[in-house]
Amino acid sequence: MGVSQIHALGRNRKFYVNEEATFGTFAKPAGTDAAVVLNATFTPAQERKVRDDARSSRSAIEQITGKKSATWTVESYVLPSGSAGTAPDLGPLFKGAMGTETVSGGSRVTYSLNANQDLGSFSLVQFFNETFMESLSGCYVNSMTISIAGGEEPKVTFEGESSGTYIPTTSSPNSSQLAGGETFATVSGGGTAATFNVHTGEGKNFVAGSVISVATDTNLEVTAVNGDAITVDSSITFADDDDIKPFVPSETVAGSPIAGILGSLTLAGTSLPITAFEVTVANNMKGIADEAFVAGTSD
């Protein structure tokens, strides 16, 4: 951590996965949507095409904004919930990879392949030290790999794509605030409303879908940003210089990693000694990303 500024630290990552009711519609996480992961990477992109019409200048004079896209990767220990008949914290990802989740209460949770075209979608969120949070909506699993090597803990890696909607949220101050020692974006003025202003230049820290706290009001979802005017999903009472920070609920996680020295591999009814094992499920899904007049992947 810095002496005068809060930094985003990987060791303090909080990660959430929440199934969506509608593809691409961000699902705000609850505490029970949390999971412990080894690593998570979100990679957003948007085409910027340079105009190539005839001109006398050698320099690019304008860019054309094109399609949005985003890929993601999540790596974790194989972490069962620890309770028979209770799905693991990363259950939505296993379900997204396999297609079917069958819960047998008090007995087991089974993930099995199906021939259904709809494998479901989910929103992913990772949060660092109240200073930075990023989210993806419309996520789906392209591949899942479970790997085991002698003496190592089994691990699982999920990879996929999304609708392209990337939601960054930051509380970092702008350069004019640094001299004043302010740590977070802050409210400008006071009142009671669902819309409030932040100090000049701070509106860029938020986009629609950002989940924030304003002073003691928490779990507010930003519905619109107009310059330095922020609109949230409920009316709040705010005062000048109230701190505005990214927000996630307290984590509720369960389970312990499967030990790499327990278990066995059985092939055709025969137990075999092995040094390493890996299985990959690939869904080979193709997003509808070339539809005219649509910014990202629509389905």
Task: Estimate the mean pLDDT confidence.
Answer: 90
* Major beta sheet summary: 9 strands, antiparallel
Tally the beta strands.
Answer: 19
Low-confidence stretches: 174-179
The rounded Rg comes to 22 Å
So how many helices?
A: 2
Strand fraction band?
A: over 45%
Gross geometry: globular
Secondary-structure element order, N to C:
EEEEHEEEEEEHEEEEEEEEE
N/C terminus separation? 41 Å
**What would you call the structural class?**
mainly beta
State the helical fraction. Answer: under 10%
Task: Break the fold down into its secondary structure elements and pairings.
Blueprint: E1 13-19, E2 34-35, E3 39-50, E4 63-77, H1 91-98, E5 99-104, E6 108-113, E7 122-128, E8 132-149, E9 155-161, E10 166-170, H2 175-178, E11 185-188, E12 191-198, E13 211-214, E14 217-226, E15 229-238, E16 243-246, E17 265-267, E18 270-272, E19 276-282
Antiparallel strand pairs: 1-2, 1-7, 3-4, 4-9, 5-6, 7-8, 8-9, 8-10, 8-19, 11-12, 11-16, 12-15, 13-14, 13-16, 14-15, 17-18
Question: How does this structure look, described?
Answer:
The protein is mainly β and 299 residues long. Helices cover 4% and strands 46% of the residues. Strands 1, 2, 3, 4, 7, 8, 9, 10 and 19 form a nine-stranded antiparallel β-sheet that branches. A six-stranded antiparallel β-barrel has the order 11-12-15-14-13-16. The chain has a two-stranded antiparallel sheet with strand order 5-6. A hairpin with a 5-residue loop joins strand 8 and strand 9 (155-161). The longest helix has 8 residues, at 91-98. The radius of gyration is 22 Å and the shape is globular. The two termini are 41 Å apart. Mean pLDDT is 90; it is low at 174-179.
